[in-house]
Amino acid sequence: MVEVPIGLFSKQEYIVSKEDTAINQKSGEVNVLGTPRLLAMMEEVSFKSVSLPEGYVSVGFLMNIQHLKPSFVGEKVIIESTLIKQENKKLIFSIICKNDKGEEIGKGECTRVIVEKVKFEQKETK
Question: How far is CA 111 from CA 47, 88, 117, 125, in A?
């Protein structure tokens, strides 16, 4: 089993663009950060935090998030991901999203699963 250190931390900053809005994400009718885009940012930060041995990758398994406050075009979004638990091949991350004022705009958990890349991709072709 591949072990990943608990407490692994990653942080990334984004500036909300017009492409990130609910209107452009086709998830709403307002020009603020769309929830699908926030979810994708959260998953990206957890994904980028993990360095696995050659031949292994992590894949998304479960996202459970709350989008608590709007973020407008031009505003900064800061996302922090911390690995809080490993259950065999499952990696469970706690994710906090804040704006540049330190206000929480989102939070949640992301579960990723460690797989052997070649075997995983071969299943796709069968």
Answer: 10, 12, 17, 25
